[in-house]
Design goal:
Helix content: under 10%
CATH class: Mainly Beta
Number of domains: 1
Structural class: mainly beta
Shape: globular
Strand content: 35-45%
CATH topology: Methylamine Dehydrogenase, Chain H
Largest sheet: 4 strands, antiparallel
Distance between the termini: 60 Å
Strand order of the largest sheet: 1-34-33-32
Number of helices: 1
Radius of gyration: 21 Å
């Protein structure tokens, strides 16, 4: 009997030491916090979705492309990629758009007709990647938060939604704007709470979450707020208006780009101003590397700062004099970005220490929604009014 008990205790010890591939309490206490633009290069908005290595895009060469039906296109969409490399994209062709699911090599898995958006359109995934969330409209339904499953089947919708990218908490709660108020929504589409004091801002204004489940967003037009997971405002900081939301480092410092003054702002974890940096491209967010370096675009350059605001490196993004936009990071902290001039939309990359890696003209034309990375080492680019998706390997 004693021998059996020893075996049982040994088995429990071994089982208890087995780590999850994506634990609820991250082991690296000071690693950056998900979800954020750039650091979450698959754009899932789910901090605890299945982990996967984001391999470097090595060659900087054109790979597959996909051409949509021609027509009149609306404002612009963002890619969303799951851990297996499946790509979700809302194609905004007037008057009826379509939600697509692609394989990682550009084959159509399914197409869901009649979902449409006139503004920036973004897609988020549930923790287990079995649910897709986006704000769209369709015949008979104005802007609503839609939920579909990964097979493209309609599950539910919540009406009166503001066009924004939902954020997904570790418990599966969805954070978005309902009746233009910050709202928590259960996975089955029930409203859990709303805070009418926090109003939505620009459609591309991301909602960030920390490890405790607190919510960070912009209260229209220029107040930056931290809200508890129960819906109570913890702190607020008033600055200038913002287009792209906030990001957090592993110490709880908050970063955002002022849209009307072109400055990078850093707040401490109590919402107090630490420092600012001038001449920042305010249209896209900064990104945070795995060792808590902040990378921003500043005109034609990328600049890296540490958490104290000291510059670590800078690098010109493209050979030509074009601005760099839409920053992303892979698991090696290589930086990826895009830019557009009359000759086309370019994609480029620099290493973690600011050394130029490659650039390529994608052959696409038009203004720029954010790109995305695929786990297999590819980057996807599309113009704002997308006729073609282009992959770079």
């Amino acid at each position: 009997m004693r021998y059996i008990l020893v075996l049982v205790l040994f088995s429990l010890l071994i089982y208890g030491c087995t780590e999850s591939t994506n634990p609820v309490n991250p082991v690296q206490t000071y690693s950056p916090i998900w979800p954020m633009p750039g650091y979450n290069a698959r754009n899932t908005s789910s901090p605890y979705a299945p982990t996967v290595v984001m391999n470097p895009v090595v060659n900087g060469a054109l790979d597959w492309s996909f051409t949509f039906p021609s027509g009149n296109f609306s404002d612009g969409s963002q890619f969303c990629v799951d851990s297996r490399g499946f790509v979700y994209y809302l194609h905004q062709i007037g008057t009826l758009g379509a939600l697509y699911k692609f394989t990682s090599d550009g084959k159509v898995v399914w197409k869901k007709d009649s979902l449409m958006q006139n503004n920036f359109a973004a897609i988020s995934l549930s923790r287990d990647e079995s649910r897709i969330y986006l704000v769209a409209y369709k015949p008979g339904i104005n802007d609503a938060l839609f939920c579909l499953d990964s097979a493209g089947n309609y599950k539910w919708h919540l009406p009166s939604a503001l066009v924004t990218k939902p954020a997904i908490g570790s418990d599966g709660i969805i954070y978005s704007f309902y009746n233009n108020s910050l709202t928590a929504v259960s996975p089955d589409g029930s409203v859990l709470w709303t805070n009418a004091l926090v109003k939505g801002s620009a459609a591309q204004n991301y909602i960030a979450l920390d490890r405790e489940g607190s919510i960070y967003t912009v209260n229209y037009p220029s107040t930056y707020v931290k809200v508890s997971k129960e819906g109570t405002i913890v702190w607020q900081f008033t600055a200038v208006n913002n287009f792209s939301g906030m990001v957090l480092d592993g110490y709880g410092n908050v970063y955002f780009n002022g849209y009307s003054d072109d400055k990078l702002y850093c707040l401490n974890n109590a919402g107090q101003l630490k420092w600012t940096k001038p001449n920042i491209n305010a249209y896209f967010s900064p990104v945070i590397t795995s060792d808590n370096r902040i990378v921003v675009s500043s005109g034609i350059n990328l600049i890296s700062y540490d958490t104290s605001g000291s510059e670590k490196w800078r690098c010109q993004g493209f050979t030509g004099q074009m601005s760099v936009e839409g920053l992303l990071l892979d698991n090696a902290d290589n930086v990826y970005y895009i830019g557009d001039v009359s000759s086309g939309i370019y994609a480029g990359s620099v290493s973690f220490n600011g050394t130029k890696r490659w650039e390529v003209n994608t052959g696409l034309h038009g203004t720029l929604p954010p790109p995305v990375l695929l786990p297999g080492g590819k980057m996807l680019v599309a113009p704002k009014r997308a006729l073609i998706i282009q992959s770079v390997n």
